[in-house]
Backbone:
């Protein structure tokens, strides 16, 4: 199994992740394909630098776990992650041309901020599985 290790800085999102995860077709596919019901929201990480750029390109090239949309919605893919070596979850990559390259959104079966007592600006470590 191919894995990547990375660190990101927790940042406040726009609240759009909760709406995305709450969509029936999204939550159903995440539950079916990842084996957990997602907490209603995403954890947003900011990642930068040449190492992240290379990892981002690897993620975009990898097949990942497809989240197939109905007409009118964007597709996405996800990758299993372990957050701070304590919580299993998934990184979501929406397939949108102008999606920020420095942003990575995570879903998990629990509210990660509360479970790990995290706040904006905290560093979060991930082990990300490419396959």
Residues:
């Amino acid at each position: 199994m191919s894995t990547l290790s990375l660190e990101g800085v927790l940042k406040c999102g726009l609240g759009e992740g909760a709406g995305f995860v709450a969509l029936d077709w999204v939550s159903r596919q995440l539950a079916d394909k990842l084996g957990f019901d997602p907490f209603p929201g995403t954890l947003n990480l900011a990642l930068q630098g040449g190492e992240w750029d290379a990892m981002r390109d690897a993620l975009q090239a990898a097949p990942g776990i497809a989240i197939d949309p109905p007409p009118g919605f964007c597709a996405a893919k996800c990758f299993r992650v372990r957050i701070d070596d304590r919580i299993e979850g998934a990184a979501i990559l929406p397939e949108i041309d102008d999606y920020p390259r420095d942003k990575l959104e995570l879903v998990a079966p629990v509210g990660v901020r509360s479970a790990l007592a995290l706040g904006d600006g905290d560093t979060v470590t991930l082990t990300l599985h490419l396959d």
User: Anything to note?
Assistant: Residues 50-61 form the longest helix (12 residues). The CA atoms of residues 6 and 126 lie 5 Å apart.
